[in-house]
């Protein structure tokens, strides 16, 4: 009887671990995850296939800018909040001064998070990869002397780079915190290098 009880407990724990893993890997916001990648990937595809689809530069430029604008709004206001619990915005106080606010959702009392690991991977992969692609497009347009495409490419770098910068600030913290962390790290490394193996010795 005692061995049966032990087997029951281990099986229950295994099922609990499997359910926890499935919750972590489950995409809880499939619509937000889809549109997080849809607008930015669509803008890149239209840019690559624009000359094959139509000969009108104005139509291509307007389509790409619209897709980039929709992507900027969706990532800044919807997908970042739902998928990773981060948001950033600009607010003006009563004195007319502009302030940038970077926030991260607090973990609940039970320690549970509303975002899953799968959604976090999708969010950061799309957020980091696409601006890098637009930077490559910028260098390509510059070196191939496609001056008319520079405005479109720069718009892609600026809009998607702004979201990347904002969410990195939300994730890591304010610049003051970054400076203090770097100072503390360098100080510890310096003390380790100066400290002798046998401890401090008087001169």
UniProtKB/TrEMBL annotation:
InterPro entries, per database record: TVP23-like
Major site of localization recorded for this protein: membrane
Cellular location(s): Membrane
Pfam families the UniProt entry points to: DUF846 (PF05832)
GO cellular component: Golgi membrane
Origin superkingdom: Eukaryota
Keywords: Membrane, Transmembrane, Transmembrane helix
GO biological process: protein secretion; vesicle-mediated transport
Transmembrane feature ranges: 30-49, 55-75, 122-143, 149-168
Membrane topology qualifier: Multi-pass membrane protein
PANTHER family noted in UniProt: GOLGI APPARATUS MEMBRANE PROTEIN TVP23, GOLGI APPARATUS MEMBRANE PROTEIN TVP23 HOMOLOG B
Family: Belongs to the TVP23 family.
Name of the protein described by the UniProt record: Golgi apparatus membrane protein TVP23 homolog
Source lineage: Eukaryota, Metazoa, Chordata, Craniata, Vertebrata
